[in-house]
Amino acid sequence: MSVPVSQLAPRPSEPSPSASSPWGRSASARRRLGFAAGAALLTLATAACSGLGRTAVGTFSYATAAERIVKISSPPIKGCHRMAPTGATAVLNNTLADVRVYRTLDCRGKEMAYIPSRLGDNIAPNTLPWRSYAFVH
After folding, report:
1. Are 34 and 23 in contact (CB under 8 A)?
2. Where are the alpha helices (DSSP H) in 12-112?
3. Cβ atoms within 10 A of the Cβ of 60, count?
């Protein structure tokens, strides 16, 4: 006489969905707690690193009076940045941040142009070139 294998070895009992683990929480509760802890940790890490070395993602480029093209990849967001000594006659802001260009070397003065992200600007004929720029943040 033969006996089926299922009758020889007892089947391990499967825990019910409401059964508690040795740590006092169900598997789904531990999983939710893990997701919440991970999200909180990610938020803290992002907030802690957000001010370190922020850059305007993309390229900021300009043309000088001598028709030389200068391209800056991911320039720093903070501060005033000087252009080439001869200044710029055309600017292309291909970054994700807006920028202001100035006719002075120190990003001050009333004569400035606001250039939104992904746009450019050319100076008018017989006007001074742009000499500095600062990102809007």
Report:
1. no
2. 27-49
3. 24
Report residue 61: phi and psi, to 5°: -135, 155
d(CA 100, CA 33): 46
Question: DSSP secondary structure string, 52-76?
Answer: SS-B-SEEEEEEETT--EEEEES-B
Global model pTM greater than 0.70: no
pLDDT tens per residue, range 12-50 = 555 555 555 555 667 777 777 777 777 666 665 555 455
Are the C-beta atoms of 131 and 109 separated by less than 8 Å?
no
Contact 91, 130 (CB under 8 A): yes
CA 89 to CA 68: how far, in whole Å? 10
Asked if residues 131 and 105 have their Cβ atoms less than 8 Å apart, the reply is yes
